[in-house]
Amino acid sequence: MGMAKYDRLLYILNLLRSRRNLNAARIAEECGVTERSIYRDILALSEANIPIYYDRGYKLASQNFLPPLNFDLEEYQYFKMTIDSSPLKVTDKYRHIAKRVRAKVESILSDSVREKSRFTNNPTHIDNSQQTDRPSSVVFFETIEKGIEMTRVLSLEYDSIESGLTKRRVEPYFIIFRGRAFYFVAYCQTRKELRTFRIGRVKSVRATTDEFNPDPTVQPEKYFEDSWELFSGEPVRVTILFRGKAARIVRAGNHHPRETIKEIDDDCIEYSVNTRGLDEIQRWILGFGDEAEVLSPGELRQNILALVTSLKSKYSS
Predict the structure, then answer these.
(1) How far apart are CA 173 and CA 149, in angstroms?
(2) Which of 156, 189, 244, 265 could be a cystine partner for 169, CB 3.0 to 4.6 Å?
C-alpha cells in the first residue's frame, strides 16, 4: 500500500536532500506508487515554490528551507543502529515507517555529520537474525494491532502446538516481542481465560464488528511478572545446585528478576528463583546436563527423572 499523499510529498523532499540522481522510477519504487504519481508530486512541490530541477536525476536547487538537525555523529549512529535492529522491521507497517523516519532524519543532518558518517564505521552492531519468525509469518500483525486499538473481537484460526488447528474468538489486549518472536495476549472466549498467542502461528484472522470492554488490569508488566520466559503458571520456588562450567555461566549473568545466588565454593553455587510454571525453567536446566541438580521442588525433580529415564531407554536400545 502506498503512502498518503502528504506523507509522500515530505518523503520525496527527504529523499531529494539525502540522495543523489534519483529518477521518477526510483522514487516511485521507494514510495510504492506509479511513476505517473511521482510526476504529479514533483509538479505539486514545484507549485508550492520548492525549487526542484532535473540533472541526471531530480535535485533541490536550495535546501535552506530544511534546517539541519543538531545530531552529532555518535547520536546519529545510535539512532541508525536502533532503527536497523528493531524486530518491528519484519512487519509491513513498521518497516515502511522505519524507512520514512530514517529518510527524514538523514535529510536534515548537518553536512559535517553526513560527511563523517560516510567514512566512519560504527564499532557496535546488533544481530537480530536469530528472530525466529519470518516476515511472511507476521502478515496479520496490523490486523491484530487494529483489533487492539478498536477493542474488536478477533475471529482467528490458530495452529496450537498442543491442540493443532483451532478456530477461536478472542479479545486482544496487547502485542509483545518476547524471546525471539511476536506474541499477543488475548482473552479466549472458547477457553474462558487469558491466553498467549504467537503471531507466527496465526493462519487467518479478521476483526469482527463485536466490541469488548477490556480489563484495565491486564498490562504487559503484570501479565509476565515472574514468568521464566513467556508462559505463566502457579508461583513456585526453584532451587538448583550448579557445578563446574555451569556454575560459572550462571554466576556471570542475570536470568530472572527474582533470582538469588549462594556461593558454596569456587566451583559450586546454589541458585534459587521465584518463578511461575515449571516447563520453561526445566528446559533451561536440562541445557546444563549433569552439572545441574534440582534440589526443589520435588515435582520438578520427578519430571526431570522421568525424562532422563525415557531418554536412557531410547538411547540404550
Answers:
(1) 9
(2) 189
Residue 231 has pLDDT above 70, yes or no: yes
Which residues lie across from 183 on neighbouring strands?
176, 198
Among 29-38, 89-98, 118-127, 229-238, the minimum mean pLDDT is found in: 118-127
Q: Are residues 12 and 112 in the same domain?
A: yes
Q: 117-155 pLDDT, tens per residue?
A: 888 887 887 777 666 666 666 789 999 999 999 999 999
User: pTM for the full model?
Assistant: 0.69
Separation of alpha carbons 198 and 183, rounded Å: 4
- Give the DSSP H or E segment for 91: none
The answer to whether residue 132 sits within a structural domain is no
Of the candidates 58, 62, 68, which has an alpha carbon nearest to the alpha carbon of residue 12? 58
Does residue 213 contact residue 151 with C-beta atoms inside 8 Å?
yes
Distance CA 243, CA 75 (A): 43
Residue 212 C-alpha cell reads as: 469488548
Eight-class DSSP state of 3: P
**How many CA atoms does the CB half-sphere of 123 hold within 13 Å?**
2
Partners of 156 in the β-ladder: 168, 205
Alpha carbons 199 and 190: distance in angstroms, whole number: 18
Contact 175, 184 (CB under 8 A): yes
In three-state secondary structure terms, 197 is strand
Residues 101 and 11 in one domain: yes
**105, HSE (Cβ side, Cα atoms, 13 Å):** 18
**Domain of 217: which CATH number?**
2.30.30
Task: Assess contact for 136 and 118: CB atoms under 8 A.
Answer: no
- Domain carrying residue 266: 235-315
d(CA 93, CA 101): 12
Could you tell me if residue 130 is inside a domain?
A: no
Q: What whole-number distance in Å separates Cα of residue 231 and Cα of residue 234?
A: 11
Angle, nearest 10°, between helix axes 73-85 and 92-107?
A: 170
